[in-house]
Write a structure and sequence with these properties.
By secondary structure, this protein is mostly helical. The protein has 2 domains: about 35 residues; about 110 residues, Arc Repressor Mutant, subunit A (Orthogonal Bundle), CATH 1.10.10. Helix content is about 65%, strand content about 10%. The chain has a 3-stranded antiparallel sheet.
Length: about 150
């Protein structure tokens, strides 16, 4: 459904593009959350565990910037993962102000078990686009993201 706003053409185009982007992302996330691959993890929890699995232990600030979440949101996400025994916090031995987040063995086993199914779901979802279209979409989204952060 396009915008009903009656403004300048560039305003209407920007709003319509945002609506399409937002609806597409909502559809992808709904597909992931309704599937069995997330194993009762939220999108933020999954992103946190995936980042730790592929990048190794990270401080909370680095982790938040990797998955684009605020420090306060990351505290909640990490608290909930810690309660489930999936991550643990450790003080950095060189700088006690830094708290490093690590996957536990249980967390590592969980992400290793769900990641292949997650990958399969991503391939299925994005199969609506050709490889070239996926690359173009990725390039456009990167360009948009970088323009916002500058």
């Amino acid at each position: 459904m396009p915008t009903h706003y009656k403004g300048k053409p560039e305003e209407v185009q920007a709003l319509n593009t945002y609506i399409k982007l937002s609806r597409a992302m909502d559809s992808v996330q709904a597909c992931l959350l309704n599937g069995s691959s997330m194993k009762e993890l939220t999108i933020s929890q999954f992103g946190t565990m995936e980042a730790l699995y592929h990048l190794g232990p990270l401080c909370q600030n680095e982790l938040g910037s990797k998955i684009l979440k605020s420090n306060s949101n990351m505290t909640t996400v990490i608290d909930n993962l810690e309660k489930r025994g999936l991550v643990r916090r450790e003080r950095d031995t060189n700088d006690r102000r830094m708290i490093i987040i690590n996957l536990t063995d249980t967390g590592k086993q969980l992400i290793e078990s769900v990641f292949p199914e997650h990958t399969k779901n991503m391939v299925k979802i994005f199969s609506a686009l050709s490889n070239e279209e996926q690359k173009t979409l990725g390039d456009l989204l990167r360009k948009l993201g970088k323009s916002i952060n500058n």
